[in-house]
Every structure is written in C-alpha cells, then in structure tokens.
Design goal:
Number of strands: 18
Structural class: alpha/beta
Shape: globular
Number of domains: 2
Number of helices: 14
Largest sheet: 7 strands, mixed
Radius of gyration: 22 Å
Length: about 450
C-alpha cells in the first residue's frame, strides 16, 4: 500500500512527462502569483506519501502546510464524509441546524484551553477567517479598536490578516491597510541582541511590547494581543513560556484579551492537542483560540473558541457565513478528533520530534551551516546560516535543498523571515522507515549542496 511505501523516482528526471504537461497547462491558465516550486502533480496520497501522475513516490514533510496531521486519505475520514454526502452536502447553519456542527462545537469546548468555565465555539472556513473572527470577538467584548501583533507573524491573506502579518511580501500592492494594527518584537531568542544573556532576553522583549503602549496605542485602546504559540511562517520559533506568562500578566493588568493563533500549531502537531496546553500547564491560558489546518483532514474548516461572555458580546449578524461549519467538514472534524485521541497522535508527535531533533543535532556537529534547531513536538525548524558567529542567513542553500530533495523523493518547505529555515511538518502517521528515509535524503542533499 502507498501509505507504507518508501520514496522512489521512476522517471529519468522530475517532473516526469505527464507531470510536465499538467504543469505547463497550469502556467497557461493559473496566475503565477500562486507559486509552486515543486515538480509534483499528485495522482493519489496515503499517509505521509504522495504518488504523482508518472508513478514517482515522495515522502511529504509539508503535509499541505500542516493540514494533514492524520495523513492523506485516512480511510475512516473518507468513510464518514461519504456517509454524510449520502444525506446532504450543505445546510447553512443560519437556516437549518445540523447536529455535526453542534457535536463538534461541544467537543472543542470540552478540550480547548481557554479562560472561563463555560465556553462556546463557532466555525469558519480558513485560518485567516478564524483569526479575523477572533479579532471581531475581542473588539466586541472590550469595545476597543486596536490590536497588537508581532514581528515574524503570519495570520492570513484577507485585508485585515495581511495587515496583521509581518512579512509584507504577502501584501505587495494591496494597501491601504486597516488602521489599529500595531506590532511588537517577537522573542526570536536565536537572534536576540548580541551578547545579551538569555535570562535578560525575556525582559528585553517584554519592554519592546510595552513600548507599543507608549509609541503606538495606549493600553486602554487595545482589544487584544494576538500570539502564535510557535510562529509558523516566521521560522518555527516557539514563544518562550516565561514571556507568555508576562504577556498574560500585561493583558490582565490592562483588560486586554489574549488570542492564541493555533491555525498551524493545533491538532497534536506540537505534542499536545493544542500548543496552548503548554501554557495551561504553566498556569496561563488564552482568552480566545483560533484554529484550522488539520481540524478536518483537508476539508476547509476553522474554529474559534472562547468563554461564553466573550462570545455573547458579538452583535447579531457580524459572525457566520454561507459555508461556515459545512456538514461534510464537521463530519470529518469529529472523526479527526476521535482518531487523534484514540491513536495518541500527540504522543507520536513527541516521538517523531525526538527522532528528528536528535538527527539534526548530529548534523550540527558535521555541518557548520546549521545555526539553530528549535520547535515543539513534531513542529521543528532547522535554520541555516553562512556563518555561526555572524548568523548571516543562508536562503540560497535552503532553495537548493528544496529542489535537491525533491529530485530524490522528499518534499520539504522553507520558512522564516529570511527564508533560511526548513520546517518539518510531516503527517504524524509517517512510518519510522519513511522518517528515516526522509532524513537520509535530507542529509545527503545538505552534503551535495554545500
């Protein structure tokens, strides 16, 4: 079966002839702004494996950019989606109630770590929509106009979330942007000021946050601070727990809501069902949590969860939408939660992360282009630099690595504000043999590309 297979390239080069034809057709009718640097035209996918139209087989370490934590085409999810499709595809939740929406909301409210005893949830279609709706909740509840986001953040491609996103390559020519979005410096500890002891870095980055109140928006006008527990596009940078605790204290002191953007970190990726569980284990929680990606195994769905008093502050008509909480997606979401809990995928993420991190550390002893290894669970970043002393980013090497590994049956993706990080996002159902094969291909590529 494909889900148990190992990578194999059967064509003389990639892309093969059939894939080349489809890629050429793509270029003819699809905007080039929707970029793709990979030579793959998928025919089918199972587990952590992709087979293309020419019969080449690839290990996928990207997983739809974090969407496929339970893998491609999980048979149990396929079964429940087919069963739901036999009943009905759609029923707008403003018009008819369907039980799948209610049941999935119940389950999320029972397990998501947000403040308050009684919680409520509602659904949207994408991560950007979840983040935008989380901001709506915060503004409705606090009656304040502004939010604070961070350097390195990625929140989406709607007009508001492009504004919230730090890297403006995602927003070229799209202004003017909404007012009321202010930015503080994220604690990127690998790139903290030269010579600064790590024990001083948390206070330094907190001071950068507090400067926003002085220089951009008084605290009494800030509705929310929006944080990724582990920055995704920013370079797989975990938010230090001590920093999170300090941010929570600032929020409490000023009546600001703390929003956790768990679009990419949710659903067992970090070794917990939600990365905010690490916060909870240290005595703090967000007020609102936004999540998406792996929630429904690839069917568009996202969720926003908060305590009842926040949810009930929103004026009627300002949240919801035609496809939000689609019955097919909710059926998939319920099965995803069941599979993740039953099959202990959070524990599997920790085991995968241990294997990958140990291998990466061994490479760091051999290749001085490896600057930093970081992450949580099976969400791991490997940062490449030209020199470990100067920490000069090495995006050229990362580009070569992405191309070289694909030639040998491994799909990897870059990240980071300098595009010099390789992110590990393989499906959590990857086999040990596939994991080792991928690591072998990756290491060989590093040696070949230097």
């Amino acid at each position: 079966m494909l889900k148990d297979a190992l990578p194999e390239i059967v064509t003389a080069q990639v892309p093969g002839p059939k894939a080349s034809d489809v890629i050429a057709r793509r270029a003819d009718v699809v905007p080039s702004a929707i970029k793709c640097a990979y030579p793959v035209v998928i025919e089918r996918g199972e587990g952590a494996m992709v087979e293309d139209v020419d019969g080449n087989r690839y290990i996928d370490w990207i997983g739809g950019v974090g969407v496929l934590n339970i893998g491609y085409s999980h048979p149990e999810v396929v079964e429940v989606v087919k069963a739901q499709a036999d009943k009905y595809f759609h029923g707008m939740f403003n018009i008819v109630t369907h039980e799948g929406y209610v049941a999935l909301a119940e389950q999320l409210c029972a397990c998501v770590p947000v403040t308050g005893a009684k919680k409520k949830a509602f659904f949207a279609n994408s991560g950007a929509e979840a983040d935008e709706n989380a901001v709506k909740l915060a503004k409705a509840y606090t009656k304040r106009p502004n939010i604070i986001v961070f350097s390195g953040a990625f929140h989406g491609r709607t007009l508001l979330t492009m504004t919230m996103t730090s890297k403006k390559a995602y927003a070229v020519g799209m202004g003017p942007f909404p007012d009321g979005v202010y930015r503080a410096e994220f604690p990127y500890l690998y790139r903290k000021p030269a010579g600064m002891p790590e024990e001083d870095a948390i206070a330094y980055y907190i001071s950068k946050l507090e400067q926003v109140f002085e220089q951009s928006s008084p605290a009494e006008y800030v509705a929310a601070i929006v944080v990724e527990p582990l920055q995704g596009e920013g370079g797989f940078i975990p938010a230090p727990i001590e920093w999170i605790k300090a941010v929570r204290s600032i929020c409490d002191r000023h009546g600001i809501l703390l929003i956790a953007d768990e679009v990419q970190t949710g659903f067992c990726r970090t070794g917990r069902l939600f990365a905010s569980e690490y916060w909870n284990e240290n005595g703090v929680m967000p007020d609102i949590l936004a999540t998406a990606k792996s929630i429904a195994a690839g069917i568009p769905l996202s969720a926003i969860i908060a305590r009842e008093e926040i949810m009930e502050s929103v004026p009627g008509g300002t949240i919801g939408g035609t496809y939000c909480g689609n019955p097919l997606a909710c059926a998939a979401g319920l099965k995803v939660l069941e599979i993740m809990q039953r099959d202990h995928l959070a524990d599997r993420a920790l085991a995968i992360g241990k294997t990958v991190t140990e291998r990466y550390r061994a490479w760091a002893d051999k290749y001085d282009v490896i600057g930093d290894i970081r992450g949580l669970g099976a969400m791991i970043g490997l940062e490449f630099v030209t020199d470990r002393t100067t920490k000069k980013p090495y995006p050229e090497l990362v580009s070569r690595l992405v191309a070289e590994t694909a030639k040998h049956g491994l799909l990897i993706e870059s990240a980071g504000i300098y595009s010099n990080v390789i992110r590990f996002l393989a499906p959590l159902v990857i086999t040990d043999a596939q994991l080792e094969a991928g690591l072998d291909i990756f290491e060989a590529a590093i040696a070949d590309c230097l």
